[in-house]
Amino acid sequence: MPKLHGILRGKYEYEPNLGASRFEVRNARLSVNEKLIGRSEYKLEVDLCDESVIKMKDAWVRLNPYKTLRLTIYFMNRQKR
């Protein structure tokens, strides 16, 4: 079964003179990782609310063909800001 992890960072502001308030989601991150059949595993981590842009933070696939050998393939986001 995949393992899901997440984090939500919010901000609440209240202005008593105006009686106004607001809540803002500053950052929301979701990650999933799982061990697969055949000594392999993967991880994917995505920022869902980073300046209104979805960004991949971390992604890899790992193969463990032998106890003493581990091969990891990383996927990098080369997108410019």
Describe this structure in words.
There is one protein chain. With 81 residues, the protein is an all-beta fold. It has one domain (3-74). 0% of the residues lie in helices and 75% in strands. The protein has strands spanning 3-15, 20-36, 40-50, 53-66, 69-74. Strands 1-2-3-4-5 form a 5-stranded antiparallel β-sheet, with no helix packed on it. A hairpin with a 2-residue loop joins β3 and β4 (53-66).
Number of helices: 0
What is the count of structural domains?
Answer: 1
Which of globular, elongated, flat, extended, rod-shaped describes the shape?
A: elongated
Helix/strand-derived category reads mainly beta
What's the helical proportion of residues?
Answer: under 10%
Reading side by side through the largest sheet, how are the strands ordered? Answer: 1-2-3-4-5
Distance between the termini: 35 Å
How do the helices and strands follow one another from N- to C-terminus? EEEEE
Quaternary organization: single chain
Number of strands: 5
User: Mind summarizing the main beta sheet?
Assistant: 5 strands, antiparallel
List keywords for this structure.
81 residues; mainly beta; 5-stranded antiparallel β-sheet; 5 strands; 75% strand; elongated
Short description:
The chain has 81 residues and is mainly beta.
Q: What's the topology here?
A:
Elements: E1 3-15, E2 20-36, E3 40-50, E4 53-66, E5 69-74
Antiparallel strand pairs: 1-2, 2-3, 3-4, 4-5
